[in-house]
User: Fold this.
Amino acid sequence: MDITTVGIDLAKSVFQVHGVDERGENVVQRRLRRNQVLVFFAQVPPCVIGMEACATAHYWARKLQGQGHTVKLMAPQFVKPYVKSNKTDVADAEAICEAVTRPNMRFVPIKDADQQAVLSLHRARRGFVKARTALANQIRGLLGEYGITVPQGISHVARRIPEIIEDGENDLPDVFRGLLHRLWVHLKELHHQIQELEEQINAWHRSSEASQKLARIPGIGPLTATALVASIGDAKDFRNGRELAAWLGLVPRQHSSGGKVLLQGISKRGDGYLRMLMIHGARSVIRVAERKTTSTDNWSKEMLKRRHKNVAAVARANKNARVVWALLAHGRDYDAGYELATT
Assistant:
């Protein structure tokens, strides 16, 4: 079969394949069971394979790359305009095959197994943090029904619960005291799980030269650095730092027409978790520049004179994203005085 480009519509059990030759004519169109995918492509000469960046996409990309194929992943929203008529597996596979050949298409970096493992730690930690916050709020709400108020914050809840359980003058029923103890034990277990995951993330951070390099940037710590290194992969996939900042959703969203340029809030595209880490880290830098007169961060001080601190935090996150690209793409080390030396 003279196949040059293939589009695969991924699924759990049944995969739809659409292949064309160098003239764009349909050569193959068939359904494959999960255990038939690698067998089929082992018999196909090396070609370009397009897939949507969805569940299991990185796994199949690594497997097919191991067979000598060139695999490209695309965001589903960029493939959707190429779907003709009704949505079916056949139409989706054909649209993927068409989209992957577009010269201006944006592709998603393929992650290796180690990168996915680190990101899995981050996702699990985030889930535990959400569960811990929800449990703490539930405990505060239940205590409020008995006239007991606890200040906001995990530390206040963890500190006050033992005192409340042991206090015999607060008129709490024994059944509720038992429930409160159960919830307190669960809260401690969630906190313990979060600490263990953070220790594993920090261990990976210490073993990664690139992650340690990024952690020297103000506003980026081990959590943010490991998530960035694992998500970005090869920084040279981005032409410049502005592309990386746009990939993280840290650039203005445009709604321009008739030659009039209208810039709105940030686009919020890409990975929301990475963007959250970058902005929260930038907030800490802005807070230090705002409160401490001894801060040497002149860039943040000047930004705070002209913009609200929330705008300044996003601008700082955008600046950090560009610095991240420069360090990873050019193999440099962070130099706090680099900007001052070039002005």
In short: Strands lie at 5-9, 14-20, 26-33, 48-52, 70-74, 252-254, 263-266. The chain has a mean pLDDT of 90.
